[in-house]
Amino acid sequence: MAKKSTTVFYCQECGHESSKWMGQCPACRKWNTFVEEKVSVSNAKITPFREAAKPVKIGSISMGEEARTHTGIAELDRVLGGGIMQGSLTLVGGDPGIGKSTLLLQMCRLLANAGRKVLYISGEESLKQIKLRAVRIGDFQDTMMLLCETNLAIVEETIRHTEPEIVVIDSIQTMYQESVTSAPGSVSQVREATNVFLQLAKGMGTSIFIVGHVTKEGTVAGPRVLEHMVDTVLYFEGDRYASYRILRGVKNRFGSTNEIGVFEMRREGLMEVENPSEYMLSGKPVGASGSVVVCSVEGTRPILIEIQALVSRTNFGIPRRQTTGTDFNRVNLLMAVLEKRLGLQIGDCDAYVNIAGGMKISEPAIDLGLIMAIVSSFKNRAVDERTIVFGEVGLSGEVRAVSMAQQRVQEAKKLGYETVIMPRVNLEGMDKIEGIRIIGVGGIGEAIDVI
User: Fold this and answer.
1) How many Cβ atoms from other residues are within 10 Å of residue 286's Cβ?
2) Alpha-carbon distance 406 to 419, whole Å?
3) Cβ proximity of 221 and 215 under 8 Å
4) Which end of the chain has fewer CB within 10 Å, C or N?
5) Residue 391 CA, distance from chain mean position
6) What is the band of 47 on the pLDDT scale with cuts at 50, 70, 90?
7) What are the φ and ψ backbone dihedral angles of 221, each rounded to 5 degrees?
8) DSSP-based three-state secondary structure for 349
9) Is the CB of residue 412 less than 8 Å from the CB of residue 281?
10) Taking the alpha carbons of 260, 265, 270, 274 in that order, is the dihedral positive or negative?
11) Residue 350: pLDDT above 70?
């Protein structure tokens, strides 16, 4: 069988193919995303296509209850939208050592102990290495099967032969197709492997989890089309040297997006954090300036988070600004609003803003909390520790409405907070909540006067 080797260029963002290198991709308009790969074109005869499927009238399709499987991990079920959807393809990404394989191995253990047929396929570890990690987690039933293989054809045949209910692929970058001559982990190999697993999931009704490595920018390595092909994309966030982990759903065809689950890494594996607000506020200083508690909503869950700010006069010609866990440009914008609308002379001050607990928050509802923390540090006056604030701040200094105000106040009351400072426009239509003082403000000047 003769083969002809050719060189093609693939866009790492969208998978667009070109015969020559280009600075900008004509499909997704991204710059410097083309990579070179060698592929072999076979002259073998093409096998006849299978019988085409016939269209079906939408009215003839019967609708029953959603075939979901509970993993036994409540936080994971929450992010997945209520459990594992039958025939779904889920991509799990995260930094090396963050706990992706550990979480999926714990999920496999609980499913196997519940009588589910589970197949764990690893291309990075041997059987003894997986067993060594599994012993720390707990006992496994015989319905849990292991396979160490990277050849995509063998993996596909094994899945078709064993017919498991749940399959875990660790990782997609190690799988290779012999007919594709590029190296494992390349754009063409990752795309081909994902397409095979997509056909298996939809054709057999098997739920497949794919582990994906991430690049230095924090996105899944390989073409961006990989994220478009799967049903659900989950990202594991957090500092690998800290004990907390956050599982965030950024795409979900069967549930809400941007839902999060909070875990704590221990010796025996990842443990669920049932009350993230209390966990995130542990160790909060008492009577310290620049510390404010805000309420942010992640998916459908309100979470109380501490914002810390440190403002001091600079010793250099250009003040230094630094943020951790929130948008740098947003903080600069809010400091400009403070200087223009309230006359605070903070243009020649260094400013450092931190979201305690390692969370990454981009919701506009924390704007008022950022303002309060910066002013508190600048004036060196502490904010009452039993007070929380939330609200979006506009360029005119007005405090605008936010979503789910009722749920935010209820979360504050549950943790024993006594005062809530929130947008005045959100007070209309809100049910009265006993035992907590609610103050509505229309601008940042009013909020600072209340504090």
Assistant:
1) 7
2) 14
3) yes
4) N
5) 24
6) very low
7) -65, 140
8) strand
9) no
10) negative
11) yes
- Per residue in 76-107, pLDDT (tens digit) is 998 998 899 999 999 998 888 888 999 999 99
Angle at 125 between CA 121 and CA 130, to 5 degrees: 75
**10 touches 16 (CB < 8 A):** yes
Residue 363's identity, in one-letter code, is E
> Which single residue is written with the structure tokens 């190999």?
189
Question: On the CB side of 1, how many CA atoms lie within 13 Å of its CA?
Answer: 8
Dihedral angle at the C-alpha atoms of 162, 168, 171, 177, nearest 10 degrees? 30
In angstroms, the CA 315 to CA 162 distance is 68
* CA–CA dist 436, 409 (Å, integer): 8
CA pair distance 65, 63, nearest whole angstrom: 7
Query: Of the candidates 162, 220, 203, which has an alpha carbon nearest to the alpha carbon of residue 50?
Result: 203
Local structure of 36: helix, strand or coil:
strand
pLDDT digits (tens, 9 = 90+) for 313-340: 988 888 999 999 999 999 999 999 999 9
Place of tokens 């969370």: 359
Sequence-distant (≥ 6) Cβ neighbours of residue 273 within 8 angstroms: 75, 244, 262, 263, 264, 279
Q: Which two tokens stand for residue 404?
A: 């789910």
Of 133, 97, 100, nearest in space to 247 by CA: 100
Each residue's pLDDT tens digit, 288-317: 999 999 999 987 789 999 999 999 998 888
C-alpha distances in Å from residue 359, one per residue of 77, 109, 123, 215, 244: 20, 29, 31, 20, 10
Q: Which of 170, 246, 165, 173 is nearest to 207 (CA)?
A: 165
What backbone phi and psi angles, to 5 degrees, belong to 205? 75, 20
In whole angstroms, give the CA distance from residue 353 to residue 198: 43
Report the b/e string of 302-332 with b at 16+ CB within 10 A: bbbbbbbbbbeeeeeeebeeebebbbeebbe
Whether the model pTM is above 0.85: no
